[in-house]
Here is the input.
Amino acid sequence: MNRSKRNTWLAAIVIIVIVIFSFLAAPTTKLYIGSTYNRAPNGYGAWYTYMQDRGIPIERWQKPLEDLKPKKPATLLRINSYLRPLDILPDEQEWLEKGNNLVILGVRSRVSPSAFNTLQLSSVGEVKIATRRRNQKAKQEQISLGDQFGAIVWQETHKQGKVFFSTTPYIAANAYQDDIDNFKYLASLVEQKGNQIFVDEYIHGYKDTDVKETEGEGNLIDYLAQTPLLAVLVQVGILLLVLIWSQNRRFGQPLALETRVIDNSEAYIQALAGVLQKAESSDFVVEMVGKEEQLQLQKALGLGSVPLEHQTLLDLWVEKTGKNPVELDTALKLQARKRRVSQRDLVNWLAKWRTLR
Here is the structure.
């Protein structure tokens, strides 16, 4: 095999491998839109926490709908990652026939001449809506939320159950954390008749361990064994081994070792760190690093770049994250002491900031 043919084969193999791994590593972030595990603006993590804080029993369901067999009438909330057709699926029809309710956020409807951002009056207050889509076929007595252009949220009765449809999947998304009426409105939809409440996470790709094993997703080997990708990877691997064996040499020309380029900034930082360590100036390190860590934390929380007061930052931390402020309080108190600390305490303090960030 001459050099040109060998290079052609190698180029083809590289292209095939890149295509395969690009497919395997393709982003699936759209699948997580509407998930209660998602803390992004298009997720529902804040609303799920809101329900828990109110003491309303709500459970994440991570199995197929046909496996959900509640002991009493229940309501299932499905928040779609994309606008689905306005149809009741077979498993949903069976669910409704058993006297259960269904809330479906994100169904396809016509675009109306309405403004994109509107305030809609509901039984719990004004609900912010960001969509022009309206269902103009819904009857007036079916409409739960709407205007002169049509229904945004409406209900239908199927057999023994009731289903609510919404033209937008973002009624109570994280983006509306400051609009509490949006959270209240969705809560009012799922709290019908005191039913047990489930939110479907299976449609967002979250599955219980037993479901993964049943569907052959327990590990990567099981997954590949059930797809044509395994055969392709095996063939590519065999071809690559044959090429290496036939040539019995490196791919391409030998490369000379490169002289390591010294990073002046890194060298300066290491030298400064050594001086501070010998001088036992841990208080200076705590003060400087603490200020920067606090600013980075504030930026991550969207609180600007002006250092906030100790208690103010703790209050905003609880408001923004819903987490206990004990670790943050400890980190802030240590940097406020302005005195030397032991190396062990310094390491633990830095670890706390890493956890907080």
The longest strand covers residues 74-84.
